[in-house]
Amino acid sequence: LRIDNAGSGYKLEVTAAGLASDTSAAFTITAGAATALAFTAQPTTTTAGTALNPAVDVTARDALGNPVTDFAGPVTLTITAGTGTSGATLAGTRTVTAVAGVASFGDLSIAKAGTGYTLSATNPDIPGATEGGSAAVWIDGCREVIEAMPLLKPAMPQPKPDPAKPPRDEK
Predict the structure, then answer these.
(1) 91 and 104 in contact (C-beta within 8 Å)?
(2) Secondary structure (DSSP) of 7-36
């Protein structure tokens, strides 16, 4: 018998042919030790230089994928090497302490527009912590494109009509 999912209120029922069945008292299965970090909220396309949206959440998980709610270690995010635009950096609070197993990053941004950015999550006590790769992030370059557009020149001032000359007929 094996129960993979942490939870409470589990009961076992025993049955056998010709005998009365019986049910155990309710019991709880708790998560094991944290062995992986998983991105549980990931940003979507975001404008360069603005906070990643939605905020990034990283959850500690045990070997069976259960959230480890008593994990309170530091989690650090970085741009995965070789992804996104060369020379881009992750700004904001890059290391936070998990609360109830979840590290929430609400003020991260990347100033360089590009596609293919991925983030990696690490914790010193969980080797190879990022589960299933990384969180994909696309930074929309619209802001940079708009900032690079030339300003429109104002229209040349039109001469004021001379009341002594009648208007010309353009036919």
Answers:
(1) no
(2) EEEE--EE--TTS--EEPPPEEE------E
pLDDT score of 69: 93
For residue range 28-85, list pLDDT tens digits in order.
887 788 988 988 888 877 888 889 888 999 999 988 889 999 999 999 999 888 888 8
Q: For 24, phi and psi rounded to 5 degrees?
A: -75, 170
Identify whether the C-beta of residue 36 lies closer than 8 Å to the C-beta of residue 126.
yes
Q: Kind of pairing, strands 36-41 and 13-14?
A: unpaired
CA atoms within 13 A on the CB side of 124: 5
Which tens digit of pLDDT belongs to each residue from 120-144? 888 988 865 554 444 445 555 433 3
Q: In sequence order, what are the beta bridge partners of 30?
A: none
The tokens of 110 are what? 């990347």
Q: Quick one: which of 110, 113, 78, 70 has its CA closest to 94?
A: 78
pTM over 0.70: no
Question: By the 8 A CB rule, do 116 and 85 touch?
Answer: no
Q: Helix or strand or coil: residue 146?
A: helix
**3-state class of 148 per DSSP?**
helix
* Cα–Cα distance, 30 to 87 (Å, whole number): 43
